[in-house]
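G., before I forget:
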Amino acid sequence: MSLPIELQDINLLLAVNALILLVTLEVFSSQSGNNSIQVNMQRLKIAAVTVSILFLVSMAMRIIAITLAL
Amino acid sequence: MTQRRGRSLKRNGIILILLLIGLAMTAIASFLFVGLDQIVHGDLYRYGLQFDYAWAGQYWTYSRFITESLAITMVVMGLAVVALLLNHPTCRTDYAKSLYFPLLLTGMVTVGFSVFFVTRLDYVVNSELYRYGLYFSAEWADGYWAHLRSVLFLFGFVASVIAVSIGLAFASKPSQHDKLTSVVEGHSRRFKWMNLFIVLLFSSGVALLTLSIGVNSTFLAILGLGLMFWCVILLFVKPEKYVKKILLEKTALPSIMNLDRTIREMGYKGTPVLLPPPFSGSKSCMVYVSAKESGELPSLEEVISVENGQFLKNAQGLFLRPTGIELAELAEKKIGRITDKVNLQYLGRKLPQLLVEDFELAESVQMEINNPIVLVKIKGSVYSDVCRETGRLAKTCTPMGCPLCSSIACLLAESTHRPIAIETDRAREDGKLISIEYRIL
């Protein structure tokens, strides 16, 4: 009994979610002339950056794994 | 009464969650049943099965009955959820009972039908198909059994959920007080539904993840993880309370107008100047208005001997707290306490980020420093109307006026340690652009 998911699946999940959050952040950003969104933009920013970093870390782990396998 | 009301709301919330989970489980069961059908009508032909209407007709009949039973189950559960929402929080009235009791009962019956037809379909596969050339292999049997077990497990789960929902719904009777207070508590319902929605999403995510281990499905695992991930995001990124711009204008303007009239009627004609500490005589910035039109700035000794903390000796000048001082203090918390290291250039870099990204007070901010003049252009400010109106007043087109212009003046005064005066304060008629010229004295 194990989770039927590998690092590359989590990598994909993080990439998609990071993309959604970053695009949402950019579209709803005050800099794009929108200052009426009722969402805590600071927290959204933190979430987007955290998920992006997690994606980059998982990507780095994959690269290291591939390099070690060679 | 309140405790009973709280229990009632809690019970209704639990029923709703249970029904929504049941609905999600029925949907997953349908998805798994499609997978089961694909094994029989796809994989089994590679293991010797010959097509014949004799077995296919029987198989299709059972298959159609299962699909229709599942569809009916989903529809009645959906209707039960709608009935619960429409009658919430007085859902345990006779009307509500009469509406969704038959619905849930129908759901229970259709789930029973589904279980019966699945067992009949399994009989067709495990006995009839061997007579049409099918030979046994663990390769197809493992996948088939995994799907079958999952479908039957989910049917059992849905039946239990419906049974518990019926039991909870008939647990107690509502009171008249419950009905009356429901109107009062209506406004907070949206947030409760939001939380319920998050709980439901998270539960579905956990269920899918658990199920993915059972059926060894990567798709379900990713779906479950995704749902759980978004629940965490929704819990973290909560909505913020905003006020309408018109309210800002209507509440800020009267006090500024009163201040302007008071200054005028007291006969103070000098240009208001914003003094930083220690020249202000206090720990924060103060606005100084001289009695004479060409009055000079007070010396430090004079400031220390200020009468009543407001008037200069012989009422030669007046000290007032700037309207934007609180905003400036909030800004200081964001960019860090203004010290000697925080110079004008640093403030010029930080100010746009502060007003646009952190406070969301404007669309864009530009600061040009041409010593001793500092020009600040603010586009799309939420204070644009307030700024335009205060600009029309006699005295308050100054550090006393618009809170935003005043707060920038405070920040400039603290970073330069010099008195600041506002030379010009222009707000375009459409309110899109505000240009403020500050003079460092």
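The two ends of chain A are 30 Å apart (CA to CA). Chain A has a mean pLDDT of 81.

More on Monday.
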